[in-house]
Design a protein that fits this description.
Elements lengths: L9 E3 L35 E5 L5 E6 L6 E8 L13 H8 L11 H8 L8 E5 L4 E8 L3 H16 L5 H18 L2 H13 L14 H6 L2 H11 L5 E7 L3 H12 L23 E7 L5 E10 L6 H25 L6 E12 L2 E10 L4 H18 L3 H20 L6 H14 L6 H11 L5 H4 L3 H4 L5 E8 L7 H12 L25 E7 L4 E6 L4 E4 L15
Parallel strand pairs: 3-7, 8-12
Antiparallel strand pairs: 1-5, 2-3, 4-6, 4-7, 5-6, 9-11, 9-12, 10-11, 13-14, 14-15
Helix pairs in contact: 1-4, 1-7, 3-8, 9-11, 9-13, 10-16, 11-13
Length: 560
């Protein structure tokens, strides 16, 4: 489905052997919520060819012409910081760095040299990220040169099994990793470092922040780093993703030839799914940072991860989207009031980590209004739970969802290949459905009329609970934020406050109260410099019109 949501990532543009310590005691795997029996799994987009090699490696190949003569080649590794041993904290990200510091076919800086030679740039065309659960390498190559495409595949093959971990390069990179953390991470990331342990209390995630421990990054032996690579970078734990302007049959043959000789370890460590318990009482976290530009308030309720593979799951996605859209419209209307305590507010449900989803309500508070913003957000949730939405709100939300889905289907051939590659990674990691824009439109047209106010009203009660809740507040160091006791008091008072039913002021109102009297075009000229038509109107206004082929069903207006 077309909706990336929550991902905590690290972006990079990026001695003597020591016996490995015994592996830690196994963590009981999380129990993922399965889809209902008889609910059909959505078929994969027919434009995507998925295959599995004998060694267990998965590959996806999709021909796509946007942009022309380019291809996205990604390596998805089903391993992140949550799989680190105690002596490896921070090394999942360190391994990602080492992928750019020498492989079997591309020693030292040869990958950098190749990227520059074919006209690509770090960041825009070559990148990688490490998260709690996964590591993904992203490479864009030109396809008008078959040699460049083949070399791009070679780079992915080396990342998958032939990173060299030269001891000299490892020692050189320690400082780079530490400096990246010191300089490259902003205030939001530092706030996360303070709040994630509260969010993940009782889970291994709390002790496996991607940042790791500086003392381990400084002192870890080369073989400790290499052990993470050999344990988890194995063919049955990886996928190769290719989306772009190429001959798919020829590229599929290359992948089969070049990745078929990868071997799995003789004694594989199980790739467990780590649970996130949500049976603790409500927790509160307050954090500040001198560089944080604004004050944020949020209420999080943790849920078990829900299936995303079936037609029924797609309907749930639509139901939840309608709820958040209608509540968001209310928040937008409230934000326009002069005495509104927040600049904007909203809600969403989505993935937190592999085994956990999250129901979020959040707002950016006006300066000095954090208390009032928290109370206002809670009161709107209470108002919906008590009185529900009204039919006119649902009608508008349905029309908007349908219009957005129709536009997505119309623009399917113009979607950037990186968006499609990202969608495929989610299909690989979590089984998230990827039926294609046309099928999603068919589902939406079929399902939207069947979704009722009865389903939507009080829906948040199914997500929210005092157990597993986290109330988070963050702001600049100069902010006078309430402490934990006061936040709990504000939250409880807002939950029990008297609220009135919502008055839908936007119901059945025309876009314009008075339709303006039409004028006329008094002259038409052509601007050769920008290949545009220029109209002069009878009221003196000038209109510049330029048709393009960037989108199939979009017209952009700007005026001054």
């Amino acid at each position: 489905m077309r909706r990336p949501w929550w991902l905590v990532v690290v972006l990079c543009a990026c001695g003597a052997a020591k016996p490995a310590p015994p592996p830690p005691a196994p963590t009981p795997p999380a129990k993922l919520v399965q889809h209902a029996p008889g609910d059909p799994v959505t078929p994969l987009d027919p434009e995507v060819k998925v295959g599995h090699l004998a060694n267990g490696l998965t590959y996806y190949v999709m021909k796509h012409g946007k942009p022309e003569q380019r291809a996205s080649l990604w390596l998805a590794v089903n391993a992140g910081s949550v799989l680190e041993d105690d002596d490896q904290r921070g090394l999942a990200h360190f391994v990602e760095h080492m992928a750019f510091n020498g492989t079997k076919r591309f020693p030292k800086q040869d990958i950098v040299d190749f990227i520059e030679k074919v006209g690509m740039e770090f960041g825009a065309d070559v990148n990688a990220y490490t998260s709690f659960d996964q590591t993904v390498y992203q490479l864009t190559v030109p396809t008008d040169d078959g040699k460049a495409l083949a070399q791009g595949v070679d780079i992915l093959r080396d990342w998958a099994g032939n990173i060299t971990f030269d001891p000299t390069e490892v020692d050189k990179e320690r400082g780079v990793v530490l400096e990246e953390w010191r300089l490259g991470r902003g205030a939001s990331a530092r706030i996360e470092d303070k709040q994630w342990p509260v969010m993940f209390a009782g889970s291994k995630y709390a002790d496996r922040l991607v940042i790791g421990l500086p003392e381990i990054i400084k002192t870890a032996k080369r073989d400790t780093l290499y052990r993470f690579y050999k344990d988890w970078y194995r063919p049955d734990n990886m996928a190769v993703i290719a989306v772009g302007d190429f001959d798919p049959a020829a590229l599929e043959k290359q992948l089969e030839q070049k990745f078929g000789d990868l071997q799995n370890p003789d004694h594989e460590r199980p790739r467990i799914t780590v649970p996130v318990p949500h049976d603790q009482p409500t927790a509160v976290t307050v954090a500040t940072d001198p560089e944080l530009p604004a004050t944020q308030v949020a209420i999080y309720d943790k849920l078990d991860h829900r299936s995303e593979a079936t037609k029924g799951d797609y309907r749930r996605f639509l139901v939840e989207g309608l709820y958040h859209q209608m509540l968001g419209a209310r928040f937008s209307e409230l934000a326009e009031e002069p005495d509104a305590p927040f600049l904007f507010a909203g809600s969403q449900t989505g993935s937190l980590v592999r085994a956990s989803d999250l129901f979020t309500r959040q707002a950016e508070a006006k300066e000095g209004k954090a208390r009032e913003a928290l109370a206002a957000v809670v009161k709107e949730i209470v108002r919906v739970d008590k009185y529900g939405f009204v039919e006119t709100e649902l009608d508008r939300a349905r029309r908007r969802v349908l219009a957005e889905t129709e536009k997505d289907a119309m623009e399917a051939d113009k979607v950037p290949d990186t968006d499609l590659a990202d969608e495929i990674t989610r299909n690989f990691f979590t089984g998230e459905q990827m039926g294609g824009r046309a099928l999603e439109l068919a589902y939406t047209r079929e399902m939207l009329p069947t979704i009722t106010l009865g389903e939507l009203n009080h829906l948040a009660r199914a997500w929210a609970s005092d157990k597993g809740r986290v109330i988070a507040m963050s702001g600049p160091s100069t902010s006078k934020l309430p402490d934990e006791a006061e936040i709990r008091k504000i939250f409880t008072a807002a939950q029990t406050a008297t609220v009135e039913p919502w008055h839908d002021a936007g119901a059945d109102q025309p876009l314009l109260a008075h339709v303006p009297k039409p004028g006329s075009i008094v002259s038409e000229t052509h601007d050769a410099d920008v290949d545009a038509t220029v109209w002069m109107l009878s009221n003196g206004a000038k209109v510049v019109v330029k048709p393009t082929k960037f989108k199939n069903d979009e017209i952009l207006f700007d005026g001054w």
